[in-house]
Design brief:
Layout: E1 9-13, H1 19-28, E2 34-38, H2 50-66, E3 71-74, H3 77-90, E4 95-96, H4 99-109, E5 114-119, H5 121-126, H6 128-136, E6 141-146, H7 150-155, H8 162-177, E7 182-186, H9 194-201, E8 206-209, H10 210-224, E9 238-242, H11 249-257, E10 265-266
Parallel strand pairs: 1-2, 1-3, 2-9, 3-4, 5-6, 5-7, 7-8, 9-10
Helix pairs in contact: 1-10, 2-3, 4-6, 4-10, 8-9
Bound molecules: D-glutamic acid (DGL).
Length: about 270
């Protein structure tokens, strides 16, 4: 039981995007080992139905539990939005998502209590961020917008070109019309668009990076649960698994994670 602290943290996402969360968790918890699962065979989750997202997220979590992790982080906003209550019920270990920390960070950053949310169609449909924000402060106003074109643009490496700027303007102008002063980047891919988004919304809107707030939340919760690695002197490792071929992973991983990983393995998920 006492060695439980030395087990890895399991983190999953629909694909490689969740490495933005891994990157932030490594920044605040550099000595933790991480097992990462990217469900690359079934990405995107953001266009799928709630029932399908919940099924996929359950299978992803089951795989990580089989890898003997001490806690699971749902890096995927879409999976956090729809599946967290199911995962918390079905598995006997701590499961953390990105929605509550993102909602809390937005409330800390806003001054006029008008908050914008951007994410996949499924995340926006779930209203998970809206509910989490309003549960803490029912005087807040929440304006959300699905941005389905952003994930493919980021994966194509188009993080700051003419087309991306045009798409961002189209998506964000109505939110600016609602006079938001904080905007939650509610998708794993959006941290890579931060500077392009900031240029479109201007300096008066605070960007809330859900990967960053999730990492701070995971550290706080795991510290409280006394689950953080105590004996380790070396830096933690990142062991990635994917459900589709491994070739495409390396390149994308470097962009999302900003560093190298252990060798990536392909796995079939038990259903
Ligand atoms: N990881 C997803 C999210 O954060 C984006 C990609 C997808 O649609 O699967 O919502």
């Amino acid at each position: 039981m006492s060695n439980r602290t030395e087990l890895p943290i399991g983190i999953f996402d629909s694909g490689v995007g969740g490495l933005t969360v891994v990157r932030q968790i490594r920044r605040v918890l550099p000595r933790e080992d991480i097992v990462y699962l990217g469900d690359t065979a079934r990405v995107p989750y953001g266009t799928k139905s709630p029932a399908t997202v919940i099924r996929f997220a359950t299978e992803d979590t089951r795989f990580l539990v089989q890898q003997n992790v001490k806690a699971v982080v749902v890096a995927c906003n879409t999976a956090s939005a729809w599946a967290l209550p199911t995962l918390e019920c079905e598995f006997q270990l701590p499961v953390f998502g990105v929605i509550i920390p993102g909602a809390q960070a937005a409330l800390e950053r806003t001054r006029n209590r008008r908050i914008g949310i951007i994410g996949t169609s499924a995340t926006v449909r779930s209203q998970a961020y809206n509910k989490a924000i309003l549960a803490s402060d029912d005087s807040a106003r929440v304006f959300s917008r699905a941005c389905p074109l952003l994930v493919p643009l980021v994966e194509e490496g188009r993080t700051d070109d003419r087309i991306t700027r045009l798409v961002l303007k189209e998506y964000l102008t109505p939110l600016l019309g609602s006079r938001i002063d904080a905007l939650v980047l509610g998708c794993t891919h959006y941290p890579l668009l931060k500077s392009a988004i900031q240029r479109v919304v201007g300096p008066g809107v605070a960007l809330v990076d859900s990967a960053e707030s999730c990492a701070a939340y995971v550290r706080e919760k795991m510290e409280a649960l006394q689950l953080l690695a105590r004996k380790r002197r070396r830096l933690g490792t990142v062991q990635p698994f994917v459900t589709d071929e491994v070739e495409r992973f390396g390149d994308l991983a470097r962009r999302f994670l900003g560093s190298r990983t252990e060798q990536v393995w392909r796995v079939d998920l038990p259903s």
